[in-house]
Design goal:
474 residues, alpha/beta, VC0802-like, 2 domains, eight-stranded mixed beta sheet, six-stranded antiparallel beta sheet, 41% helix
């Protein structure tokens, strides 16, 4: 096959009318329009309204329904989501007939979901049925509304522009539910010819595995990667609203950053660990094992090749990205820990039970420190459980941050030493620092307020002074 599978994120989808004239069509015509399969996310902010806000935790429809003391909260939340979805498609569609079709599609999906939730609520008023047993299915149902809506609107928009676009709805609306992801994709793509039509595929796929059980809101990249692997795409492309760059341009300056051009899946995994997700690690694994290279581009610069991610090693050792995130250091100090097995396993068990994501960890004779991505509220519960296990241990949680210098090959660069020097010369102090033997990343532990200036200092030391070793676009 010679087609590509390409994914568009939610923020970019909110400007899909601009993408119609650049990414989707641009200067293409005739057969040149095709050979591309697009996987779309919901319009920006819609999934937050349907589930809960990803950053603030503000309840959406799902959160309101799951904790509802009465009917009013989730009904109102669903109305708000529907209103915002209608505004989103009215902003990008410019023909009244298309807006009416989008309105009708949205109304059918919203009211169908509302009826389903009412019926389930009524059923669970009987003691034999428990709402908690159905929450995952509810979450998937609601999430699928966003992608189905954006895919439908994109299809209408492109058809109006003369493109032979085709909606491929993987959301399982009123379909058989007991279908594997592979069968769901294969069934939906049966009869679809990417060489003569442009498939617009929903980022959410309903399947027996339950994508949200394992991936939660990373499901669209899983759908995207599996679609690319199953259809034998020659390349998978993610269109973002920015280039994959050496640092956040808002932090170090647009003139100082540079586009990566080329990197590998190892670097992508390190970025995911630091919360700067180029692609979900499980999605990256699917592409990697299938031999499908990944390209990250700026959706609004379609002429730029972006950054190619594959399995190739670096030609020259270099720091490629400097990034960071806020963390909490969970420290367990126990004098009796020396030579005793089982402490680490017990700590990991508690962290797993509370769904705490571990970024890194260090230990010595009597102390185990886990650097985690979590809230202090959750960590208080973790501390309580650990205190019950080890009443004589001293257990503390401290708000810190972590900066990381990442590259395909850091051998011979003395990144740890030079990084500590750069931090000191900038007037700051590293509380800790670690480097693994694989030489792909170095982590510096800092006070929270020092993260941004330290990233700037590290970027200046490793990237801005080393332009000769930069990889080129592929």
């Amino acid at each position: 096959m010679t087609h590509t599978v390409e994914k568009i994120g939610g923020t970019s989808m909110s400007r899909v009318d601009e993408l119609r004239d650049t990414l989707f069509i641009g200067d293409r015509s005739g057969d040149a329009l095709y050979g591309r399969v697009f996987v779309v996310s919901a319009f920006g902010g819609i999934t937050n309204l349907l589930l809960e806000h990803k950053k603030t935790g503000t309840p959406g429809v799902y959160a309101a329904y799951a904790s509802a003391d009465n009917d009013h909260g989730w009904h109102e939340a669903l109305d708000v989501a529907a209103e915002e979805m209608a505004k989103a498609h009215a902003a990008v569609l410019d023909r009244s007939a298309d807006i009416e079709r989008a309105d009708a599609f949205l109304r059918e999906r919203i009211e169908g979901a509302r009826s389903c939730l009412i019926d389930l609520q009524r059923l669970c008023s009987y003691g034999h049925f428990r709402l908690a047993e159905h929450l995952l299915q509810i979450r998937e149902l609601l999430s699928g509304l966003g992608e189905a809506h954006s895919a439908m609107v994109t299809t209408l928009l492109l058809q109006r522009a003369g493109v032979n676009a085709r909606l491929v709805d993987l959301s399982g609306w009123r379909d058989e539910g007991d279908v594997s992801l592979e069968d769901r994709i294969a069934g939906a793509m049966q009869g679809v010819d990417p060489e003569t039509e442009m498939p617009i595929v929903t980022g959410y796929a309903q399947c027996a595995e339950g994508l949200m059980r394992e991936f939660d809101r990373g499901y669209s990249e899983v759908t995207f990667s599996r679609l690319a692997a199953l259809t034998g795409a020659h390349e998978a492309i993610i269109h973002k609203e920015f280039h994959l760059s050496s640092a956040d341009p808002r932090l170090v300056g647009a003139d100082a950053v540079r586009k990566l051009g080329r990197t590998n899946y190892d670097v992508a995994d390190q970025l995911s660990n630091m919360g700067m997700e180029a692609i979900h690690p499980k999605a990256a694994k699917t592409l990697r094992q299938s031999g499908v290279p990944l390209r990250i581009t700026n959706a609004f610069e379609p002429g730029d090749p972006g950054t190619l991610i594959d399995d190739q090693p670096a030609d020259v050792a270099a720091v490629e990205i400097v990034t960071g995130l806020d963390i909490i250091a969970l420290e367990v100090f126990e004098q009796d820990m020396v030579g005793v097995k089982g402490y680490d396993a017990a700590v990991l068990d508690v962290l797993t039970r509370h769904d705490v994501r571990i970024v890194s960890k260090v230990s010595n004779a009597n102390t185990i420190t886990h650097y985690v991505d979590s809230s202090l509220k959750t960590m208080r519960r973790v501390e309580k459980d650990l205190a019950a296990l080890y009443p004589s241990a001293k257990i503390t949680s401290r708000r810190l941050s972590m900066a990381s210098a990442i590259g395909r090959d850091l051998k011979g660069l003395s990144v740890l030493t030079r990084g500590l020097q750069a931090i000191a010369e900038a007037g700051f102090e590293a509380i800790g620092a670690t480097q693994g033997p694989r030489n792909v990343d170095v982590q510096f532990i800092l006070e929270r307020e020092d993260l941004k200036p330290v990233i700037k200092a590290l970027h200046a030391a490793f990237v801005e002074t080393n332009k000769a070793a930069l990889p080129h676009a592929a």
